[in-house]
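Quick review question:
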């Protein structure tokens, strides 16, 4: 179909910026995880129940998952030089997507424990020899809680990378801003106080 215009705009993807953003997220996640170990916030990795987790452990785990990916999204969008929120958010989310297989690889190598206990579900359970037919209740609960904590950490990381990309764009963090950004200042609706 010659001359067909779908009306779609392409958003260029700056892969080098995304790689650097993903590496920045992994590096900051490692730093926060090791800092958590240094101050004794490491009980998440061995907790069978979420009731046993201290507030310090929770702060390091959730804060580490969030702020590491805020940095990753911010770095990806800033290096790419993006000034619009939508492509900046896209770059932050792609940096998060690139980080997930990195974390899976680190989990397979056994190095994910240095990032704190929330990513323990990425390591899986290595079984050498015959597969056990039954699993005791404590082990099953620990595996379930580890998988849930890993899911929460990954989703918090996705939110962080989106917010980081949005912050890097420099546009106001308002969901209605995109409606008015193309209008001149005089044409924008005025707020009534």
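Suggested answer, residue by residue:
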């Amino acid at each position: 179909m010659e001359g067909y215009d779908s009306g779609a705009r392409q958003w260029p993807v700056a892969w080098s910026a995304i790689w650097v953003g993903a590496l920045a997220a992994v590096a900051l996640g490692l730093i926060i995880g090791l800092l958590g170990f240094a101050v004794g916030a490491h009980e998440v990795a061995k907790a069978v129940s979420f009731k046993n987790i201290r507030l310090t452990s929770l702060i390091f785990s959730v804060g580490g998952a969030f702020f590491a990916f805020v940095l990753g999204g911010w770095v990806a969008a800033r290096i790419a030089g993006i000034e619009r929120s939508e492509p900046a958010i896209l770059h932050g989310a792609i940096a998060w997507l690139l980080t997930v297989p990195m974390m899976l690889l680190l989990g397979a190598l056994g190095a994910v424990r240095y990032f704190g206990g929330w990513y323990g579900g990425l390591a899986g359970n290595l079984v050498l020899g015959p597969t056990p037919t039954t699993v005791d209740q404590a082990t099953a609960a620990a595996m379930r809680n580890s998988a849930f904590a890993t899911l929460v950490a990954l989703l918090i990381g996705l939110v962080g990378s989106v917010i980081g990309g949005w912050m890097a764009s420099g546009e106001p963090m308002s969901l209605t801003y995109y409606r008015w950004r193309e209008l001149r200042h005089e044409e924008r609706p005025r707020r009534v106080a």
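Why it works: The helical segments are 15-38, 55-80, 85-109, 137-169, 177-180. Residues 121 and 151 are 8 Å apart (CA to CA).
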